[in-house]
Each structure stands twice: as structure tokens, then as C-alpha cells.
Design goal:
By secondary structure, the protein is an alpha/beta fold. The chain has 25 helices and 30 strands. The longest helix is centred in the C-terminal third of the chain and has 39 residues. It is elongated and about 110 Å long.
Length: 905
């Protein structure tokens, strides 16, 4: 594997002039001789128009020739291909795209691929339902198989594993094309030439290669052990895939009798009486005086007469129930902890199908003081589901007089597989594990090396690592996934020798042991004595997804590329999969490279429905995005998404999309106003209001840049949008007179009529061009389609390849005059805008048009602001059609407006 590239920070950005020298093909920000502004600009059709141009011109292609220090790489979340995307995907992927577009404008060569997570349980379930089939590995491959014309979920057709995988690939390819179409319509600036899938051959090679390396180093191992198990899917699941769901139940008090004729009793309380035949001990807290005389003795399990010891453990809560707890193999994860730490035997009764299995009463480990009764009563439970067995054993215990009192009804949190319908169980099975617990301290340190955005999300990661109870089980008893690249020899009796695995060679990867043959064997020896057997399992989908930096960067496939992009700059993802995807990726990178896989983690929140509940397909409250894109446009939908702050859950709000569309329309109209037939610009900004506006804009640029550097796209948008609306509502209105004045109606300082209009018009022309160029670039990450449209009216190349504005350059361009009078000029702009607002308010209240003449405006304010107003009085009079402005020194600001009399038509 290629070593990680040298450490660098995402914030190592070159000055704009250096960037332009390095990348001479970047779009210039100088305007052509004349702008070509449409007479009636519109948002309609921009997505298709510019999407085609971007693809044709390779606008977002990754520049492989860029030096390492100029690369910005993104570990993009590969969405699960299982039907359709929902608005939650649009939400979080827009966040990532704003960062990608910003970094590209900062001169970075942005590595931004898209992946499809197309293996795992969601895909299998979708294929089963869609085609009406089920996988049966015992069925032979049929090269001519076609799925039934009328699929039936109740009577699915059994097909071979290769046929099932073919159907999975067929359906995921269809879904992926639909996903790509949606992403393109949303305007994601992805390099589509670098798309990958988690089931593709390169991903399988990378995943299998990493597994074999872990196996060789002893970090991967196989063990017969208690395993979290979903009885519906009949597969192992990982601790990270569990979720708590509230379920009602009953707590029953059950009597155990002390062995050897002792008349005393031991009372326990349990919600799972069906596991009494699996009981291996009773436990008390070491300091519980009530149980002192019982500790060290043996008791008999009711109905089954099995001797079990009474022991102590500090995890027992003496305040709960009777203070005695029953340890079964296995009822929950705490049972596993007690079993492991106390060295207890295994007495398992639950089968992988969720039913109580036959057990050999009388054999070693299944001894009984009353064997006949044990066999008889257990026969009443064998073959029943958990719920059926629970009901029946309570009846048997009641008949035997071993139930004490009435049951206590309760509601409790029960562990479920996140995609399952019934509670998970713990069964004993042979599974593959990655060592996790020995690395917990190192993983905590890795989390502290990582820059978290927002920072408080690190606590969730540390809580998860500290709460781990065992190594990561990575094997799944499924069919569509990355196979373990191993075979096992069979002995003369046909038994599998699991302790002598036969690993695939590097040249064989990727391999499928169910169809491929290990070196030194022939296909005819499969399953035969002294032959071989392939490992039947596939890897957990997270075992592959945890390698997305390696898969996207083509580790072991393209070492030059991998060295440039790894470690990556950022992992964007939602907060709910910190425990799965983020944690597992850090673990794999730590095991393989002793390094972090990325420098930053940008965490997004969920999209909530109007009731503040998370949107999810299982809850049926999702909103699909296609109609939103059609109704409001991609820029409007992106605007809503970009307002969701990092790490914060955000309610779905179509009203905000309407605001986003108005913002896009405003950019169209402001650009048309500023550019259409705009007089030539001057060499400098001679008007104080123009200079003050540009100084304010420089501060906005600085704030937006700082926010983006912290991955706070929402703060950047908020700052830019707020000032843009102010700019349109006040600055553009204030300078409208000068913008159209070609006859010289103002003095050079803008305060009174004179013959300096040419210079003043040249000043505002320069201010409009400079400010508009900056606004178009500042809004480009959020509203890429309309920003590209207005940019194309007067600039060469793409706005998305233009340089990000630099606050320092703007301040330098303002010159020494601005530095000397900056506060006064800023006050002039502020008070002129405040007065104009009051004048327009008065006209609106009088139901008069905005161009209605004002005979007199009396401005009350403090002396300093009134003095500043003189600098902007000329623009103010023209903007408000004001004949006379009078000023009165006062403590509070106020404006008295006297409108001219209306004239009859």
C-alpha cells in the first residue's frame, strides 16, 4: 500500500495572484468590452443548459498533474443504492458541494468523486421484492435465467447465488443512473469520470487485499463466539448497527431452589423466562448483604433441574429487583460480559431462525437432577419462537408453583438491528472479527487529532469508542457483498479445517470462493473429503465502506493518485453514522497506515419533518426531491439546504426554497441593472459612498472566507446573503441616479449639483462592476446555475473556475483616501441608507409611487452622523426624489417627510 502523502492543512491557500500564475487556464475576472445582457433574463432551463456546458468543458475534472500541496480531496459519502434518494440526501450533499466549489475557486485541484454503496442488506431486500426471488446457494447457476414476469413476495423463486448477484447488479445499475441524473440536476460539482461502486472489481480487490493484510498481521481472526444476530435476515450484525426501540413487556419473579436439600430459595426477576434452560449462573453484587449466605452455593433451575452457581459481580445493581440476576447464554450484551469475565460455560438454546433449538439433555453441559422432567418440559418449548416459548414457559412455571406474585408490566428499550423487525438475539456462531478493543486508546487519540466541525461532535465519537464491548464482527451470512478471499481444506471425513485457511494470492483478486478454486485444487474437489470449501460469508457492508478513501483513491491500483489524495482533506457525513462509518474508517486507516484517513470531519444534521422527527423511508415521512427541483429550481433547493448549520438538525421548509428562488431572481435583476448599457468605468473610486460600500463588501468577503475555512458554509451564506439584500435595497437605489446620469448633475463629492457627473458616473460604474463580480463569485457555491448565467453575460470562462475574492485586494484597491476617511464614509453610507428607508416607508404608507417627489425631508440625528450625511446627500436626493434635505441635531434618529402635492392627470 502506498504511504500517506505528507501532512498539509486544508487552509494552506496561496494568494490569488500566485494561484493565477499556477493555473493560467483559470477564468479571468476582467470584463470584456461590453456585456451581453438578455432583455428578459430567466431562471428557467439553467440546470440543463449549464449542466451540459460543465460536462462538455470538463469544468469539474480533477487535475492529476496538480502538485500534492494544491490538492483538496473529499471522501464523499457513497449513498446506499436501494430505491430512491430523498431530500435528506440533497441536504447533506449540498453542504459538501459548497465546500468543493469554494476550494476550487481558491485554486485547489479538487478531488471530488462520487461512489455508490451498492452491496449489503438493503440491496438484497430490494432485489428479492422487485424480482420475486430468493437466493439459495445450493441451486445451480442458470446462465439463461430470467426473473418471473409477475413477481410474488409470498412465493419467491429460488435461484443460485451467481444468478442472484447478477440481478443485484442489474437493479443497482438502474438506480445509479437515476441517482446520477438527480445529482447532476442538483448541480453537484462531482468529477463523474471517477465514479466508483463498493461492489465493483476495484473495490473488491482493495477490500480483499486489506483483509488479507490484517489476517497476516493477526488483526483479523475467526472465532466461534456469541454473536449479535438478526433472526429475520439470519445474519450476524455489529454493535454499531443496533438501535433501541421501546417495547412493552412484563417482569416475572421466579423461584430457584438451593441444591442439596437446602430449604432456602433464590428469587430472580426476569423479562426473558424462555431463557431459563440457558441459565449458567445467578449473580449478586459483592456488597449485597441480603445474598451473602447464597453466594458460593449452587441452585437448581426451575423445570430443568440444572445446577448453576451463585456468584458475584460488581455490574449487578443491588437496587434492581431482588438483587439477584440470572445469567443466560445469551440474553443480552451484559450476559456476554459476565460469561467472558467469570469464565462461565455456554448453554445455548436459541437457533439462528429465532426458535428454540433441540438440545441434548443428559449430555455434557446439559445435566439435570430430573432428566425426564427436563426433557419433557423443554419439549414443550423446542421449535417455538421466542414469544411462543415465553408464553408457554410461564404457563409451565405457574403450574409448578415457581412464579411468585403477579408480573409487573413495564416498557423498556430493546435492541434491534437498524433494518430488522424483531429484537436481535445473541447466538453462538463462527464469525470473522477485526481487533478493535486493543486499539481503543489509540482510536481515542486519533479522534483528538482530527479537526471536528462542529467541535462538540468529537464527544459522540469518544462516547462510542469508550462504550465498545467487543471486537468488530465483520462477517455476514448474506449473498451480495465482498466475499472473504479464503478457502479451507477438508479432512478425510469432509470436516472443515477452519484453523488452516487458504488465502487467495494477490494475482487472483478479486475472488469469489463459492465459484473460484484455490491453487493446487481442481473444481471437482469442492466439498469432497480431502478437498476444499470456500468461505461462505461476505463482509459487512461497513467493512467495505470503511475503505472509501482507499477505494476512491485507488489504493494499490494507482499509487501515484493515492499518494496525492490520501490522507484526504475532509470526510463529510451525518452525525448518526459517527459510530459506524466514521469510526470504522478511522479504525481501518489506523490499522493499515497508522494515520488518520482525513484531516477534517464535517458533520451535518438530519432533515426533520414538520413534527420534528427524522425523515426516513421506514417511517414513511420522506420527501423526494425531484418535484422540488422542478418546482423551485436547483438553486432554490440548494439555498434551503445550505441554511442548515453544521451538525444541526433542520426542518424541511419549502417556504425557504421560495426565498432561495427570490434570491436567485434578485441576482439576475441586479446583474442586469448593473451591466446593461453600463457607462465606462473610471480608474478609481472617487465617490465616498462607493468606497464605503466596497469596504463593507471587503469585510463580508473576509467573514465568508473565514467561515468556509471552518467548513461553516451556512455562516458564509448568511453573511453574503444579508449584505447582498442590503446592497440591492439601498446601495443600488442610492446610486441609481448616478448610474444613469451622463450629463453631470452632481459635484465631485456627491453632495450637490455641479459638473462632475462624468467622474461620478465612472466611479459608480467601477463600483458596480467590482461589487457585482464579487457577489457573483461569493454566491456561486450556493447558487451555481444562476451565478454561471450572470457571469457568462460579461466574463470569460466559468465563474466556478474564477478566483475567490480576496478581502486584502479589495482594501488595497480603495487606496489611502479610504483609509483616512473610512469611518466617516461608512457613516455616510449608513445614514443615507437609513434616511432613504424612511422616505420610501413614508411613500408606501401614503400609497404613492417610489418616484413620487418629496418637497422636504427633515433628518434628526447626532452631529457626527449628520456631518457624514453631507457626503451622500447628492445620491440621497436623487434616489428619493427629494428637493430639500434639512438636518436637526437630536439624540434619536428620525425623519420627517413632506411629500409634494399630487397633480391631476
Amino acid at each position: 500500500m502506498a504511504p500517506p502523502r505528507p501532512a498539509r492543512r486544508a487552509s494552506e491557500l496561496r494568494p490569488a495572484d500566485t494561484i493565477n500564475r499556477l493555473t493560467p487556464d483559470r477564468a479571468k475576472t476582467q470584463p470584456p468590452a461590453a456585456a451581453e445582457v438578455p432583455e428578459r433574463p430567466t431562471l428557467d432551463g439553467l440546470e440543463e443548459k449549464w449542466g451540459e456546458v460543465w460536462e462538455r468543458d470538463g469544468c469539474y475534472r480533477f487535475d492529476r498533474s496538480a502538485p500534492c500541496e494544491r490538492v483538496f480531496s473529499i471522501d464523499t459519502p457513497p449513498p446506499t443504492v436501494s430505491g430512491s434518494l430523498h431530500v435528506g440526501h440533497v441536504f447533506s450533499y449540498t453542504h459538501t458541494d459548497t465546500i468543493a466549489r469554494y476550494q476550487r475557486m481558491r485554486g485547489k485541484a479538487v478531488f471530488y468523486p462520487m461512489g455508490w454503496d451498492d452491496n449489503g442488506l438493503p440491496t438484497e431486500r430490494r432485489v428479492q421484492n422487485h424480482f420475486g426471488v430468493r437466493c439459495d446457494p445450493s441451486v445451480a447457476y442458470d446462465p439463461d435465467f430470467s426473473p418471473p414476469a409477475e413477481p410474488s413476495e409470498k412465493a419467491p423463486v429460488s435461484i443460485s447465488r451467481p444468478n442472484f448477484v447478477e440481478l443485484c447488479l442489474r437493479l443497482t445499475e438502474t438506480d445509479e443512473r437515476a441517482f446520477e441524473q438527480l445529482w447532476r440536476g442538483l448541480g453537484l460539482s462531482v468529477d463523474w469520470s471517477m465514479t466508483y461502486t463498493t461492489i465493483g472489481a476495484p473495490a473488491q480487490r482493495i477490500s480483499q487485499r486489506s483483509f488479507l493484510a490484517l489476517l497476516e498481521r493477526g488483526e483479523a481472526y475467526q472465532l466461534e463466539a456469541p454473536t449479535l444476530w438478526d433472526v429475520d435476515f439470519q445474519t450476524a450484525v455489529a454493535q454499531a448497527e443496533l438501535e433501541d426501540r421501546e417495547r412493552s413487556g412484563a417482569m416475572n419473579r421466579v423461584r430457584f431452589h438451593v441444591a442439596d436439600g437446602d430449604a432456602r430459595e433464590a428469587l430472580i426477576e426476569t423479562t426473558r423466562p424462555e431463557l431459563i434452560p440457558a441459565c449458567v449462573a445467578l449473580l449478586a453484587h459483592p456488597d449485597d448483604e441480603r445474598q451473602r449466605e447464597l453466594v458460593g452455593k449452587e441452585v437448581l433451575t426451575p423445570l430443568f433441574g440444572t445446577r448453576v452457581p451463585v456468584l458475584t459481580h460488581p455490574l449487578v445493581d443491588p437496587q434492581k429487583g431482588t438483587g439477584l440476576v440470572m445469567v443466560c447464554t445469551f440474553g443480552d450484551l451484559t450476559d456476554v460480559v459476565w460469561w467472558r469475565e467469570l469464565g462461565l460455560p455456554v448453554r445455548s438454546v436459541l437457533g439462528p431462525d429465532g426458535r428454540l433449538a433441540d438440545v441434548p439433555w443428559g449430555a455434557a453441559g446439559w445435566e439435570s437432577e430430573d432428566l425426564e422432567r427436563a426433557r419433557r418440559d423443554y419439549g414443550e418449548l423446542s421449535g417455538r419462537t421466542v414469544n411462543q416459548a415465553r408464553k408457554r414457559i410461564l404457563e409451565l412455571l405457574e403450574q409448578a408453583g415457581e412464579i411468585v406474585g403477579e408480573p409487573t408490566l413495564l416498557t423498556r428499550a430493546v435492541k434491534f438491528f437498524e433494518k430488522g423487525e424483531r429484537p436481535v438475539e445473541i447466538v453462538t456462531s463462527r464469525q470473522w472479527f477485526f481487533r478493535t478493543m486493543p486499539h481503543s486508546e489509540a482510536l481515542i487519540e486519533r479522534g483528538r487529532e482530527l479537526a471536528w466541525h462542529p467541535p462538540y461532535m468529537r464527544a459522540r465519537y469518544e462516547d462510542w469508542v469508550n462504550g465498545l464491548t467487543g471486537d468488530w464482527c465483520v462477517s455476514r451470512q448474506r449473498f451480495f457483498g465482498v466475499p472473504f478471499p479464503l478457502w479451507y481444506p477438508l479432512d478425510a471425513s469432509g470436516a472443515v479445517r477452519h484453523d488452516e485457511p487458504i488465502p487467495a494470492g494477490e494475482e487472483q483478486l478479486p475472488v469469489d470462493p463459492s465459484t473460484d478454486v484455490p491453487g493446487g485444487y481442481t473444481p471437482e474437489q469442492r466439498g469432497q473429503p480431502n478437498g476444499f470449501a470456500g468461505d461462505p460469508d461476505v463482509m459487512d457492508t461497513w467493512a467495505t465502506s470503511s475503505l472509501t478513501p482507499q477505494i476512491a483513491g485507488q489504493a494499490g491500483e494507482d499509487d501515484e493518485l493515492f499518494a496525492k489524495v490520501f490522507p484526504m482533506d475532509v470526510r463529510p457525513q451525518a452525525h448518526d453514522i459517527i459510530r459506524t462509518w466514521l469510526f470504522s474508517t478511522i479504525l481501518r486507516s489506523h490499522l493499515d497506515y497508522q494515520a488518520l484517513p482525513w484531516r477534517n470531519a464535517a458533520i451535518s444534521g438530519w432533515v426533520l419533518d414538520p413534527d420534528r422527527k427524522k425523515m426516513s423511508k421506514s417511517k414513511g415521512n420522506v420527501v423526494t426531491p425531484m418535484h422540488l427541483l422542478e418546482e423551485y429550481g436547483a438553486d432554490a433547493v440548494r439555498y434551503w439546504a445550505a441554511n442548515g448549520r453544521p451538525g444541526t438538525d433542520t426542518a424541511f421548509d419549502a417556504q425557504q426554497m421560495k426565498v432561495g428562488r427570490r434570491l436567485a431572481v434578485k441576482l439576475l435583476n441586479a446583474s442586469k441593472f448593473a451591466l446593461a448599457d453600463l457607462p465606462p468605468e473610471g480608474e478609481s473610486l472617487t465617490n465616498p459612498l462607493d468606497r464605503a460600500m466596497m469596504a463593507r463588501l471587503a469585510a463580508v468577503v473576509a467573514d465568508a472566507t473565514s467561515s468556509f475555512e471552518q467548513f461553516d458554509y451556512a455562516r458564509a451564506l448568511e453573511r453574503v446573503e444579508s449584505f447582498f439584500w442590503w446592497y440591492c435595497d439601498y446601495y443600488l437605489e442610492l446610486v441609481k441616479g448616478r448610474r444613469y446620469d451622463t450629463g453631470g448633475s452632481q459635484d465631485g463629492d456627491g453632495s450637490a449639483a455641479g459638473d462632475g457627473g462624468g467622474e461620478e458616473t465612472a466611479s459608480v460604474s467601477r463600483a458596480l462592476r467590482r461589487s457585482l463580480s464579487i457577489f457573483q463569485r461569493l454566491l456561486a457555491p450556493f447558487l451555481p446555475f444562476v451565478a454561471e448565467e450572470v457571469w457568462s453575460w460579461w466574463q470569460e470562462g466559468s465563474v466556478h473556475r474564477a478566483s475567490w475574492p480576496q478581502a486584502g485586494e479589495l482594501n488595497a484597491a480603495l487606496g489611502e483616501a479610504r483609509a483616512a476617511d473610512g469611518e466617516l464614509e461608512d457613516a455616510a453610507l449608513g445614514v443615507a441608507a437609513d434616511v432613504l428607508k424612511e422616505v420610501r416607508k413614508a411613500k408606501s404608507q401614503a400609497r404613492r409611487p417610489m418616484r413620487a417627489p418629496v418637497t422636504r425631508a427633515v433628518v434628526q440625528d447626532n452631529a457626527q452622523r449628520l456631518a457624514a450625511l453631507e457626503l451622500g446627500a447628492g445620491d440621497l436626493r436623487q434616489a428619493g426624489s427629494i428637493e430639500t434635505i434639512e438636518t436637526v441635531v437630536a439624540e434619536e434618529f428620525a425623519v420627517e417627510v413632506e411629500l409634494a402635492q399630487e397633480t391631476a392627470d
